[in-house]
Every structure is written in structure tokens, then in C-alpha cells.
Please model this.
Amino acid sequence: MLTQSEANALITLKKKRAKKDSYDFPQRGELLTIPIVSLDEREAFLLDINRGRIRLTKCTYQERHQGIIILVRLDVDGPPHPNPEVNVVPFPYLAEYNGITLPCPHLHIYVEGFMVKWAIPAPEDEFPRTHDLYDTLFDFFRYCNIVEPPIIQKGLL
Model:
């Protein structure tokens, strides 16, 4: 488990693609996992793009560290997310979402002691195009500080 300051540092760390490979945006029901590294190549990450099987507009984007620690996850057109209900909310910005179930799109950010159990509505200024899954991917790259993103072909969505 990471401390909050470690997680925040990893999220804001500038990153780049680990390989010069080209990928196809996943089709319905597919998962694509792409290696990402910090600019100095000391930290390794995985970027997941997971498409829904039934609902064409359902997609999850997530950034992981050490293979298993989810730092950021954006859920588009998936099921609603129930936030924990706690007596002491870990951060003031989460107070209004304490015990609340949020519809999609919503954003999960690592919270020490909770991992990604908390979600907030996806900020519209960061993710203004959630109706377009391919464009949203590039918004997610920006949000995760991936300054040299992997090459992903749009293909058939």
C-alpha cells in the first residue's frame, strides 16, 4: 500500500510510453494493457482500457503502479458507484460524496487506506468528451500526466 503523498507523486509524475509499438483501440469486450514509464524510466506503470461487452459506450480507463495498485480510474457509462459512508472523511473534497452512489462518468483517485473505493463525478473540465471514448482516452492521458502517450489507432468503435 502507498502513502497518500507517494500516490500523489506517482499520479503527477510525468510519464511516457515504454515502447514505440502501435495498438488498436479495444473493441467491445476487449481489454488492452499498455506499459508506461516515468520519463527517467525508474517507475513503471500499466494503462488499461477495458471495453464493455454489451453496452458499446461502457469503458474503463485506469493507471496502475507495480501491476496492482490502481492510482486513477475513469468509468464511462458503467454501473453507479457506491462510496463508503464514514464518520471521518479522508479529504474535504470527498465530504459531499460520503455514502453517496454516483452515476457514470465518475473518477476514482487513490485514497490512502481506501485504495480506489471513493469516486467523484468526472470533472467536466478534465473530461469534456466522455461521449467519445477515443477522445476521452487522450483526456485520460493528460490527466495522468502521460506526456508522450502510446500510439493507439482508433479503428472501429
In short: Residues 4-151 form one domain. The chain has one domain: 4-151. Residues 133-143 form the longest helix (11 residues). The helical segments are 4-12, 133-143.
